[in-house]
Amino acid sequence: MSGLTAPRRANPLSFLTISLALAAAAAPSAALADGAPLADGHAPAGVMLDHMHKAGEFMVGYRYMYMRQDGDMLHGTGTASDATVRDNACGPPNKCMMRPAEMTMQMHMLDIMYAPTDWLTLMLMPQWMTMDMTMTPLMGGMGTKSHDTDSLGDTIFGALVKLSEGPGYHLHTGVMFSAPTGSVDETNNGKLTHYGMQLGSGTWDFRPSLTYTGREGPWSWGAQMSGIIRMEDANDEGYRLGNVFKATAWGSYRLANWISASVRILHTEQGRIEGQYNTPHNIGSPPDLVANYGGRFWDLGLGVNTVVPSGPLKGHRFAVEWLQPLSDDPNGYQLERVGTLWVNWSKAF
Question: How far apart are CA 300 and CA 47, in angstroms?
Answer without folding.
Answer: 13
